[in-house]
Amino acid sequence: MAKLLLLNGPNLNLLGQREPDIYGATTLADIETACQALASAQGHELDCAQSNSESDLIQKIHDARTAGVAYVVINPAGFTHSSVALRDALLATGIPFIEVHLSNIHKREAFRQHSYFSDIAEGVICGFGALGYELALRAVFQKLGHSDARTSQT
Ligand code: DQA
User: Among this protein's residues, is 101 annotated catalytic?
Assistant: First the structure.
């Protein structure tokens, strides 16, 4: 059993209402419920958190290290394109992570096409809407099965 963390950045609390033509009709609560069910079916424990604040997100990453979280799935949202500090938090803790975006950021405005996370992520999933979170979790399960990533027992 591993501890996992799903982190969502600013404005993703508005999923379902926010630009549904781009981000879809699924709410964040629905995504979190589905991800938790998926993780527990695999015997893992998934914590979910969303914040509009950069400092909260950084603190959650620091806390994840102390809690022995083995993997993070993160959609840094707008901070994808701006936050060196959030990138540094992930580097500082060394927790492997997968970057998720609902939309295909490479098909959008030029400023969205650079991510401060992609070059340090284990993998990046974008353009599949809410399904992207499930795909990321499935990748995590496979990685955990084939690595000595930390578990809550260690
Ligand atoms: C996003 C893409 C970002 O450019 C944007 O700022 C978001 C959501 C996505 O999931 O597609 O807030 O991360």
Answer: yes
